[in-house]
Amino acid sequence: MPMKKFVNDPANLTKELLEGLALCYSGKVTLVNEKVVVRATPKDQSKVAIVTLGGAGHEPALSGFVGEGMLDASVVGDIFAAPGAPKVLEALRLFKREAGILLVTLNHAGDRMSASKALRDAQKEGIKVVEIVTHEDISAGVDTPIDDKRGLAGCIPLYKVVGAAAEAGKSLEEIVDIGERFNKQMATLAVAMTGCTHPQNGGVIAVLPDDEMEIGMGQHGEAGGGRTKILSADETAARMIEPLVQATGVKAGDTALLIINGVGATTLMEMLIVYRKTAQILASKGVHVTPGACGEYLTVQEMAGFQMILCKLDPDHVAYLKACARTPYWTA
Amino acid sequence: MLTLSQFKEMVAAAGVDIRAEEKTFSELDAASGGDGDHGTAIVTAFNAMRKADGADFKGYLKALTDALQNEACGSTSTLYGAWLQGMSDAAPEGAAELDAAALAKVFAGGLEEIGFTTKARVGDKTLMDALIPATEALVAAQAEGVAAMFQKGASGAAKGSEATCAMRAKFGRAKNLGERSIGPRDAGSASMACIFNAFAKTVK
Prior knowledge:
The complex is a heterodimer. Chain A starts with 12 loop residues before the first helix and ends in a 10-residue tail after the last helix. The longest helix of chain A has 17 residues, at 268-284. By secondary structure, chain A is of the alpha/beta class. Chain A is built from 8 helices and 15 strands. Chain A has 2 domains: 10-184, Dihydroxyacetone kinase, domain 1 (Rossmann fold), CATH 3.40.50.10440; 186-315, Hypothetical Protein Tm841, Chain: A,domain 3 (2-Layer Sandwich). The longest helix of chain B is centred in the middle third of the chain and has 18 residues, at 100-117. Chain B has helices at 4-20, 22-31, 38-49, 57-71, 74-90, 100-117, 128-140, 146-163, 187-202, and strands at residues 2-3, 97-98. The radius of gyration of chain B is 16 Å and the shape is globular. The interface between A and B is large, with 38 and 38 residues.
């Protein structure tokens, strides 16, 4: 079946979407080395640079969060595929500075391999760079070994926190501490109602029967977790928030951030209805819920479903989340 | 003896067969818990490698590594990059032909290097299920000559890949599928078997 998508040559999707991003948000971002998105106005050299890497096809992530208060650069691969290590190394060279670079890597096999190789090569060249790996997906269970937990949309509030800390002039060591504390206290659970099609080859990833949904699908709807008949928004919220509370250890008196990230074909109406119930459940537990976010941040083409992200916050995290951010798809 | 021009033909033949099976590799990837783009990734890699050239085995294998790593994405870039880099490192300086012993060293070197990059081994439902038995069979057949080495290698890769059907994924997100990952063949092992098969067909 032909794909019903507004595309040209499937081989050029990534190149064309990045050119579109740079044209649309010309005041905020610009494209260098073909597939590296950087700020239109670079941050002061004296401050730590925040760099990330990942595949395309997840717009606005990751490049949509390049800008003041968040990322300095996003190194892009191809659709759903990490950039090769040489591309990551090129970007690290661009941001070489005494203050250092924080590289944020989402835990996916391809991303980790490229990042590790680039990191080793960069350090050999004397580039000061430290990596934070996000792995907050609890779809295989809260007790899953850390290497088996994927990085989902939780990277976005993490970009916000470390980006604000860098903007405030914190040192690389301080930013790593701030970021790792945030990283340890966040968890994400995904739910899907339909799979997605791969926009380059039209292949369908993860087919679900019409009356079923699956809690615990991966970034691209790779099958996994538990299938169930479709539940209401409130039932879904209740079922998803409990393991997240368990994973983050959020309890009465704590402050938490709640994000509902749509993955492509779920409407904002549905996301807000889910957010409502989830926030109410958290409030009933005595958790103080800070202003959150509902929208499409890290998507998977036309997959229906969302990721629910819960972050237990320390006082400095609250302040960094509030700090100014001017990026194409996140402002504060 | 394997000449460099024969080896270049082998790489080209593997590219032809890989491109012909692109859709199958993507479908296998999706079926076994991946994100359905292994075909796209491996074809991109072979397309990139078409630009590589070199005057000796070491140089050509290094050029293949660089071309692949610069253009291929995802784990294919790093894994195949490591495999080819390891082969280049193990190739003798300036050699434009390899005898059976040198050839065995080149393939053993490739396996060693990729083994540093991934923790996956036989039984984990990855490309290593094809590459490890293929390399071992190829090395073990040294006394029988170059053509036999590739025949045995191809047969080892095919059997190893076939065996992944019955395996439960132990790496990456496919692992979360549990019992549901059993059944489909691993896509990475399928493309690796396809490459060894093309090698064997070319060196008759």
